[in-house]
Automatic annotation (TrEMBL), chains A, B:
<keyword id="KW-0813">Transport</keyword>
<feature type="transmembrane region" description="Helical">
    <location>
        <begin position="257"/>
        <end position="278"/>
    </location>
</feature>
<feature type="transmembrane region" description="Helical">
    <location>
        <begin position="345"/>
        <end position="366"/>
    </location>
</feature>
<feature type="transmembrane region" description="Helical">
    <location>
        <begin position="476"/>
        <end position="499"/>
    </location>
</feature>
<dbReference type="GO" id="GO:0016020">
    <property type="term" value="C:membrane"/>
</dbReference>
<feature type="transmembrane region" description="Helical">
    <location>
        <begin position="440"/>
        <end position="464"/>
    </location>
</feature>
<feature type="domain" description="STAS">
    <location>
        <begin position="527"/>
        <end position="650"/>
    </location>
</feature>
<dbReference type="Pfam" id="PF01740">
    <property type="entry name" value="STAS"/>
</dbReference>
<feature type="transmembrane region" description="Helical">
    <location>
        <begin position="378"/>
        <end position="401"/>
    </location>
</feature>
<feature type="transmembrane region" description="Helical">
    <location>
        <begin position="285"/>
        <end position="306"/>
    </location>
</feature>
<keyword id="KW-0472">Membrane</keyword>
<feature type="transmembrane region" description="Helical">
    <location>
        <begin position="147"/>
        <end position="164"/>
    </location>
</feature>
<dbReference type="Pfam" id="PF00916">
    <property type="entry name" value="Sulfate_transp"/>
</dbReference>
<dbReference type="InterPro" id="IPR018045">
    <property type="entry name" value="S04_transporter_CS"/>
</dbReference>
<dbReference type="GO" id="GO:0008271">
    <property type="term" value="F:secondary active sulfate transmembrane transporter activity"/>
</dbReference>
<dbReference type="InterPro" id="IPR001902">
    <property type="entry name" value="SLC26A/SulP_fam"/>
</dbReference>
<feature type="transmembrane region" description="Helical">
    <location>
        <begin position="209"/>
        <end position="227"/>
    </location>
</feature>
Amino acid sequence: MVHPSPEVLDTKEIDIRSMSSSHRHSDQAPYMHKVGMPSKQNLLKEIKSTVKETFFSDEPLRPFKDQPRSRKLVLGIQAIFPILEWGRDYNFTKFKGDLIAGLTIASLCIPQDIGYAKLANLPPQYGLYSSFVPPLVYAFMGSSRDIAIGPVAVVSLLLGTLLQDEIDYETHPKEYLRLAFTATFFAGITQASLGLLRLGFLIDFLSHAAVVGFMGGAAVTIALQQLKGFLGIKKFTKHSDIVSVMRSVLTSAHHGWNWQTILIAASFLSFLLFAKLIGKRNKKLFWVPAIAPLISVILSTFFVYITRADKDGVAIVRKIEKGINPSSVNQIYFTGDYLMKGFKIGVVAGMVALTEAVAIGRTFAAKKDYQLDGNKEMVALGTMNVIGSMTSCYVATGSFSRSAVNYMAGCNTAVSNIVMSGVVLLTLELITPLFKYTPNAILASIIITAVIGLIDFDAVILIWKIDKFDFVACMGAFFGVIFISVEIGLLVAVSISFAKILLQVTRPRTALLGKLPLTTVYRNVEQYPDAAKVPGLLIVRVDSAIYFSNSNYIKERILRWLADEEEQLKAKDLQRVDFLIVEMSPVTDIDTSGIHALEELYRSLKKRDIELLLANPGQAVIDKLYASKFTDLIGNDKIFLTVADAVLTCKPKTAVEDV
Amino acid sequence: MVHPSPEVLDTKEIDIRSMSSSHRHSDQAPYMHKVGMPSKQNLLKEIKSTVKETFFSDEPLRPFKDQPRSRKLVLGIQAIFPILEWGRDYNFTKFKGDLIAGLTIASLCIPQDIGYAKLANLPPQYGLYSSFVPPLVYAFMGSSRDIAIGPVAVVSLLLGTLLQDEIDYETHPKEYLRLAFTATFFAGITQASLGLLRLGFLIDFLSHAAVVGFMGGAAVTIALQQLKGFLGIKKFTKHSDIVSVMRSVLTSAHHGWNWQTILIAASFLSFLLFAKLIGKRNKKLFWVPAIAPLISVILSTFFVYITRADKDGVAIVRKIEKGINPSSVNQIYFTGDYLMKGFKIGVVAGMVALTEAVAIGRTFAAKKDYQLDGNKEMVALGTMNVIGSMTSCYVATGSFSRSAVNYMAGCNTAVSNIVMSGVVLLTLELITPLFKYTPNAILASIIITAVIGLIDFDAVILIWKIDKFDFVACMGAFFGVIFISVEIGLLVAVSISFAKILLQVTRPRTALLGKLPLTTVYRNVEQYPDAAKVPGLLIVRVDSAIYFSNSNYIKERILRWLADEEEQLKAKDLQRVDFLIVEMSPVTDIDTSGIHALEELYRSLKKRDIELLLANPGQAVIDKLYASKFTDLIGNDKIFLTVADAVLTCKPKTAVEDV
């Protein structure tokens, strides 16, 4: 053996003692664990801590701890309106950044809004309305510094399809609009109450993979929807699935297409894509793709105006209401059966909008490394949509594309949102009439370029590499959206995500452990081929909390490990198994069914006259083992601090030839 | 330090090497783990193993392994009809046990059947029918040796309420009966298909606690239902909740009660309870409570016959069809909207019946230590009910009370069921007319004594002691059944069980680790107060797989541990934290969201210039860490075999004063 380095020597010192002591522990294992046990009668504390970790894991009241009342009040108000907090040390340099960012996203959002409104089957001005009020509200209440608020493609599409299922927007535009506001109202209520009830974690149940798939699918669907404007097709299907869209595209091929429209659309699309490319190549030129849409709107509008191409069947926006948001309080359905429908749609749309906003918020918060209070965010977004629903806005949330631009343009605070909504205000007051001649084709091209960004190939590839099950969820959501509908895709995504959780808790992993040569470390023999099983004993590790959902499986699996082992041993007629050591480090919790499973395991082992030893049960587990008197059943001296200790006591019976 | 014993010395030998080597490992951590990694391209294998563990965890084909074809065929047939297997070495001594057991449960089941049929709102003979055919079928196909098949209280009640919700049994007895057969048919189909599709594990989602609560609630409800017969009330509510039952009992108090009935019922009830007490006191006298019901039926019938008490308003059975089960194939609804209703009811009743049967089977299999193939059991029970539905039987399953008697009477095989059904056959053929004068009151008393056994106080107390959350589920089910209805109680039970699983995966435990004095073992500082934190580093253990449902929480929780720690250190102005070690032994799996969370954790640590080290990631985890290039991000040399190794490498920067 190599001459040990000083370091090794000093660890040697430690370790002689370590083993002796840990051996001493092993004799007094119950002592060790009694120490580990908290007092029995702490039910309230228990419940309290569970509730705390579940709902208040972020300790929202932390800053309020031991502060004078007056200060608490101030902090309270600041908690509701973060602007009061960061507003105080706001200065001109910060404003410069926000101004530029605000102007950039404004130029990007105006054409997008008009397009997205069409996705939701709403008149164009409602898109602009939704980019005026909500960003203002958010600026005061929101805590993300980089998110850009407004209508977004996916939510607009989702809302459009869900509403269309209830009311036809062509035959009953009024009711349709009213239902849209109702849905928006309840979307806001949903978001706010999720935040207030501290149920923010619920949106975590939509897995990253599912979101990627859903977004991708939605992007494709939206792009396909744009073929209407792009090809200038008059009568177009109201379904969003690829099959019926393609059918109505092809059927209208021989007469329905309009070459002038296609010409305009194609040329500007290539222009926009080229701008996007420039932006990708050189991050400094981020503003090129950002303002390209507005430029192409201006150019194309002017072009159509002078050529009067609209006479040749080039569809144009035709009319956008002038002036700012009218009130829509009295339009919301608070009675009748549309109330329920609006509520349902609102919940779904609200959740999706929330997922997108929170995802964005987290991404950029991580980039700039500031904490984002999920629940507070939800309250902000919710209030914003509730107020929005009363001022003729439909569901608004954080937009991926615009937030990215906002970030790259160097925004510092939510002031950029204020700037943007200022610009939108001016647009509404002054220049909406100028959009009269804007060809729909250009909006189609703009939306296509925008949504392309939602298809994240790299993420999909990574998901495939990392976790096949996630990949299934991702693809399920993707194809669900494309081939059936947005809501079905969403449903698929959620259910696959749940299926995964359930699978995890029903069929946990178990592993046979072996001794790593020249150490006292015991590891999975599959993972470490050089780990050697100790003759005469079987060491099994259970890799999950033992709950009713898996207790039977775990019991039977362990017995199967044993059966396999004994089979092999018989074959090679080696020493039989006398001890079964269950390594419980990963067993974080156990319930009554779990205890029963252990008892049954113990009994059937006893019949085979094999001793059951437990290694390193955690706090919650040892607690319950005592409460259920299981420790008395198997004997306190059968519970050890480490597998090594357990193995040591087995030695007397079975000679370990050291590997 | 004490003079080390020889044993300690030899472990010392081991341990010097251990540390040096494991330290050597730590330098070559990536090497270690590369060894641990299986080859990349094993997607198929991966999926195959998942499927295997999920659906074929019990290796049903194991005995077929490397056998000649002819043998395989025999084994196949034996697998379907276990009787062929145990039948071959069946002998007289075994038969004696089975005969006695069979007669005992027969005497118990006959009066119970008649009563249970009333619970299901069916004419009495259908109870007996269901104790004739199903046990026969089960005897050939079932693999439990102790279960006693027949109609049971809970399922009868459940079926009764569910059917009554669809059709009123008084106004439309024919349709009601037909729907009952339809439900039974689909109950069988459900059970069989669960078995064939290897979905047996689904019933594990009804937690033990929930079952205890549900059973208790059902028992109370059933007992309350018996007040009708017990007090001789004519018009009685059709609802099963305690409130409406009590109301109809009290409203009928001043005129509706019949004192003769009460007299008979009360006296025999006390007799039955006394018999039960004797059985409890002296296990040898198990037959006393077993035959007491039949005796009291005979006595009371005779008594009523001579006194003609029925003239004084003592309700009697009046009429039981003579003869064995008529066919009912043509009565099952295979069309119309009753098909769907029957299907729904069947699925629910089938699942509940299955849960009860499997629970019983497992209990006694554990007692006699023989394996029970859950999926095979389901196929047997399913077939039994399908055949039953075609021979005028309603849903039959394993009965708690009768199975216990069967076991205590010393049954050896399912032959006891054959004996029982033989006795039932004779009863149907010969003596049913004699039941004409049997007072309903006696049946009420018998059922009450029977269901009392379903209320398991000890279990409830144990549940309370062990797991508070289980207790909530238990009580939820209990009160759900009592105050609302059986199906609601069931729903509550299931949903609380699920809520628990979700909570588990959303808010996993995390723990700060400290070094146990004089060892290299690191444990939860809460559990082991003498475990000392290592200055300069923070060791956090994550106690769960890291999935989308908890990845964000885990990331934020770890950062919070860090924040708290740093706060304290500042307060005591101690050395700041330079290293964060994440002990990953319990982290059994990770998905894409989990990887992202780790990346974000790494980044925000880097900003605080704290190094991230990982200790002992499992196979699946290290696999994915590599696939996602996370290992390259933090550096391969930052992954260690044990926490001790990780701590060693931190030493150079931060001197550990040994505790």
